[in-house]
Specification:
Length: 65
């Protein structure tokens, strides 16, 4: 798991989060055209592996297509 930090992230309502930490994982290989990215968002309280059975060649989320 990797993390990306944002400072002073402003929400739509005007509130500001001094620090926003986003956890993410990558699977597969990014194409030279960088056009095979799939972003899946889940509830913060859910298991971050909830989509694992749907990701991969021939599955619902296939970055090769």
């Amino acid at each position: 798991m990797q993390f990306y930090n944002l400072c002073d992230f402003q929400l739509e309502g005007g509130s500001v989060m001094p620090q926003l930490r986003i956890a993410y994982e990558t699977q597969g290989k990014l194409s030279p055209a960088r056009d095979n990215v799939i972003v899946l968002l889940h509830d913060a309280l859910e298991d971050h592996h909830a989509f694992d059975s749907l990701i991969g060649p021939g599955k619902t989320f296939d970055a090769n297509r």
